[in-house]
Design brief:
3-stranded antiparallel sheet; 246 residues
Length: 246
């Protein structure tokens, strides 16, 4: 039962092991209403399926580097999550990203030659245990709980694929640029936030008519404007930080 090195794992995951009847015949899922594992995270990956809802809560930005991904920005400071309370619960009414809701499970290939994804979990999370009542297996079959987890993780993987397609189109059209937001402070120097990428509106407006029609028809234009509208929340995050809201 191999575990991948933490350095190769997604955000939050310290280890992953495949869920199996051989090693976890009586294990169950511990129900928890806290997400304290997000406390030191200031940005969480998003899929394009979430843009419409997520843009109501926080800024949607794009990461730096060769393969930028959409991110929900939770604060303007590394290691600070403004949407997590002292009790480890997510802020009431704020959207909770699917990336968080998936944890501690994920679908992964068990080896370089594998052609299918297997359900795995982070065995350091303490959420899959032998004494939990919500069992993951019924004999040698997946329980209803496990089937729901599989369905959710499968849908999430499909959303990831759609997100990759969206980002590939963004790169082809060269719409992303290094972002910069200036926030005016009463009686003080302006605060400038950098270190992210965003859609360059001047490039968007310069697209050909046939490109725009295609983007409207395939939904890409709506996603771009959800991102652009969401950037107004950066000022809200700044004000919350200045007020000391955590």
């Amino acid at each position: 039962m191999a575990s991948a090195p933490a350095s190769q794992l997604p955000l939050f995951y310290q280890s992953i092991v495949p869920l199996s009847t051989q090693f976890h015949p009586n294990h169950g899922l511990v129900r928890s209403d806290t997400v304290a594992f997000t406390r030191s995270t200031h940005a969480i990956p998003l899929t394009v399926d979430e843009f419409a809802v997520a843009q109501r809560t926080f800024p949607i930005i794009f990461g730096m580097g060769e393969n930028p991904a959409p991110l929900a920005l939770l604060s303007l400071v590394d290691g600070l999550n403004l949407f997590l309370g002292a009790d480890g619960k997510w802020q009431d009414g704020a959207y909770l990203p699917a990336f968080v809701r998936r944890y501690p499970f994920m679908l992964a290939k068990l080896g370089p030659e594998a052609t299918e994804l297997s359900l795995c979990f982070d065995d350091t999370a303490g959420l899959v245990t032998a004494d939990a009542e919500d069992k993951l297996f019924d004999g040698d079959q997946a329980s209803p709980t496990t089937q729901r987890i599989l369905d959710f993780c499968g849908q999430f993987e499909q959303a990831i694929a759609r997100t990759r397609g969206f980002m590939e189109e963004m790169e082809k059209l060269e719409l992303l640029t290094d972002g910069e937001v200036t926030i005016q402070q009463p009686g003080g120097e302006p605060a400038v936030y950098r270190g992210f990428r965003m859609v360059a509106e001047e490039k968007l407006h310069a697209l050909r008519g046939d490109q725009v029609r295609k983007m409207v028809q395939n939904g890409m234009m709506g996603l771009i404007y959800a991102h652009l509208f969401s950037l107004s929340h950066i000022t809200t995050l700044f004000e919350r930080q200045r007020a000391g809201a955590v």
